[in-house]
Amino acid sequence: MKRRRICLPSMAGGSVWSSIPGDLLEHISGHLSSDADLLHIHQVCAHWRACTSPPAACRPWIMAHSTSWSRSRAPGDPDYSLWLPRRVLQRRVEIGGPPPAGLRYCCGASRGWLALVDGAPTRLVLWEPASGAEVPLPCLSPVARVFLSGDPLASAGWMAIASQSIGGHAHRPFFWRPGDAAWSSLREQPIAGIVSVAFHGERVYYLEARRVVVAYDLNLGTARPPAFVGIRNVGWLVNRLCRCERLIHVVRGAHLVTCAGELLLVVLRRGPALRRGGRPPRSSCGPSFCSSFAEVYRPEWRSQGTLELGERVTDLGENSLFLGGGESFALSAKEFPAIKRNHVYCVAPDWNYSLKGDRTLPGWAFVFDLGSDTLKEIPYPKDLRDDGTNWWPYSWFCLRSPLMKKQQQ
C-alpha cells in the first residue's frame, strides 16, 4: 500500500518552513516510518535540522549469535548482537533499553520483533525493541526458530509458526494464535529443520533443509487449524537449472521470500565444479556458463498440489531481498537509503561461496547485484576476529520503526 505524502505549499523566501513550531516538527518526525523520510525532513532547512534528527543507524542490520568458541561474556549479557552491514568501518548497533530480564537467547527475528527465551527454556517472549512491547507466548521446549505472519501490534489475526528440535537434525513444526493455551502441531511427521518461511496471501510456505516446500492455508480469522495444501521436493528442480556443458554450479541454498505481493524462490550457488568427464573452459565463461550466484524465480503452486519454478526474475524494481537463517524479507531502496535496489543481501554462516577457483568469500555476508551479475563481500569485522568474540552471522533484522538517538541513551 502506498504511503500518503503531505505536500506543503511553497512560499517566497521559504518562510513557511522556518515558521513551523519545533515541537510539532519533532512530533511529526516521531511518526515517520521510513529512514528516507527522516533524512528528508532533516535536510529541509536549518530550523528543521535543529528540531529533528536523522536515524541513529539506518536499517536493516546483520544479527549475529555467539558460538561455543566465543569469548565468555558477563552474566546476563545477550547472546546475540546487531551490526551495520558495511564493507568498511563496521560497528555494532545498540538498540536502547535492555531486553526482558533473564531472556538472553534469541530464537527468531521476525516483523521487527525478537523471540527471546531463557536458558532452560521456561519462558518465551516476543519483544519489540523500539517500544519495549512484550507478548508472552507459551514456551515450546526446546524451541529452534519462531516466525510471525504479521506484526502483533498492527495485524489482526496474526499467527506464529515455530520449529521444535526433537533430537539430532529432526524438527517438528507448530503454530500458535493469540489466545491459545498452547502450541498446536502443524505436521506430525518430523522434518529436517526449517530453512525459511514465507507468508503469502492466506498461506504459509516453509522450506525444509532437504529443500522440501510445504504449504498450508492459514485459515486466519477462524477457529479452524491450518489446512494442508501440498508438499513438493524442489531439490531436483533447482539442481537441474545449471546446464553448463563442462561445469556444474552446486546449489548451496534456497530461500522463500515475499516481495511486492509475490512469492519468490531464491537459489544460491557456490563456485563451479567439473562435471564428470568434463574439462574446464580455456578462457572466460562462454554463453553456456552459469555465472549467477543468486537466481530468483516465481514458484507456481498448481491446483494438483505440485510446485513448478515458473519464470526467472531479474529485476526486482526498487526492492532488494534479505536472506538468512531466520526470516527473509524484501525492502524498498526508496524507503531504506542504506541499501541498493535490485540486490540480494545474504548472511553467510559457514558458507563458502567461490567467486573463482582461486578465491573464496569470508564468512560474514555478501551482496549480489541481479542486474550486473556481480558479487561483493561484506567481510567479517576485523576487530571481532582479533579479540576472540567470534560472533556468528545468522540473519537480518529490520526494526519496525527508525532507530533514533534518544532510543540509544
UniProtKB/TrEMBL annotation:
Limits of the KIB1-4 beta-propeller domain: 100-357
Domain of life: Eukaryota
InterPro entries: F-box-like_dom_sf (IPR036047), KIB1-4_b-propeller (IPR005174)
A Pfam family this chain is assigned to: Beta-prop_KIB1-4
Designated name of the protein: KIB1-4 beta-propeller domain-containing protein
Organism: Arundo donax
Source species taxonomy: Eukaryota, Viridiplantae, Streptophyta, Embryophyta, Tracheophyta
